[in-house]
Automatic annotation (TrEMBL):
Designated name of the protein: SMP-30/gluconolactonase/LRE family protein
Family statement: Belongs to the SMP-30/CGR1 family.
InterPro entries, sorted: 6-blade_b-propeller_TolB-like, SGL
Listed transmembrane segments: none
One matching Pfam family: SGL
Cross-referenced SUPFAM superfamilies: Calcium-dependent phosphotriesterase
Gene source species: Novosphingobium mangrovi (ex Hu et al. 2023)
Domain of life: Bacteria
SMP-30/Gluconolactonase/LRE-like region domain mapped to chain residues: 14-251
């Protein structure tokens, strides 16, 4: 494990690899900005975004789709922002994100601020899916929803549920609707709250935990395979990157702010997928089910 970047005063999350640019884009919760970092050169930058960004993911048009507390924005190459979709008002924030192979965006909405308890109590926090200019709430009333990942065929979804101490497993229909199966992991006996999550090409899962500096790797059958201790106070984000997705990037909270660590992988992760914005007919939106 190697520390490749330190950012004093920052709180980094949602590291996403940009293929072609050979860099990461990350959200900085502390400063309300996006940050970019090129591991090969050490170059970094900061992008001001209207609102409070929770993630940034690439689009097929070469721009970034940014999730904020108020809306989904498209950020073009010149840094100009335009609204893609207005989110429901409330004390909520975009968080963990995953783009599936069909170009659909799955992300969590987290309760925050003074009205967080009220929002959580009314079921707004949880998992949503965006495509075809439509936002669909998939999992309701999950205030500690964490990272998620779909398999390459977008037939199975794993979702960290910190409040229930579980990593939940869902089957996914072609239209994107969900039905829940037996949990992938039940961590109640260990009192661990799963948070950030990344799934490799063999179905293994890298998992971080709320308030913890430990990482665990589980095999596809849920067997604990390895544990890593990250020199930090808490792991705040996970993502694959590098050429061939052979590196796990680890966002960490430290005494000075934030740090980014790398861990070389024996089993790589999936290649990054780009979002198809606008009305692209990439999901049968009339068949949506909610959970």
């Amino acid at each position: 494990m190697h520390c490749c970047w330190e950012v004093p005063g920052a709180h980094l999350q949602a590291p996403v690899w940009l293929d072609g640019a050979d860099m990461l884009v990350l959200a900085d919760r502390a400063h309300g900005t996006l940050r970019c970092f090129a591991p090969d050169t050490g170059e970094s930058g900061e992008i001001a975004v209207p609102g409070q960004p929770g993630f940034g993911v690439p689009t097929q048009e070469g721009s970034l789709l940014v999730g904020t507390a108020r809306e989904l924005l498209v950020l073009d190459r010149e840094g100009r922002a335009s609204r893609e979709f207005l989110l429901e008002p409330g004390a909520q924030q975009t968080g963990h994100v995953h783009v599936d192979a069909r170009g659909r965006v799955w992300f969590t909405m987290e309760a925050f601020g003074e009205a967080a308890a009220e929002v959580a109590g009314h079921g707004q926090a949880g998992l949503v899916r965006y495509h075809d200019e439509r936002l669909v709430r998939m999992v309701f009333d999950m205030p500690m929803a964490g990272g998620m990942a779909l398999d390459p065929e977008a037939r199975e979804l794993l979702l960290a549920d910190g409040g229930a101490h579980r990593v939940r497993r869902y089957r996914v229909s072609r239209a994107g609707s969900l039905w829940e199966e037996a949990p992938f992991l039940d961590l109640a006996a260990d009192a661990l709250r799963p948070a950030a999550l990344a799934r490799d090409n063999e179905g293994g899962v890298w998992l971080a935990f709320a308030g913890s500096a430990h990482l665990r790797h589980y095999a596809a059958d849920g067997t604990l395979h390895a544990q890593l201790d990250v020199p930090c106070r808490e792991v705040t984000g996970l993502g694959f990157g590098g050429r061939g997705a052979e590196i796990l990037y680890i966002c960490a909270r430290t005494a000075q702010g934030a740090a980014l660590y790398t861990h070389d992988l024996a089993v790589p992760g999936p290649a990054s997928c780009a979002v198809r914005t606008g009305h692209a007919d990439i999901g049968l939106i009339t068949e949506d089910d909610h959970h």
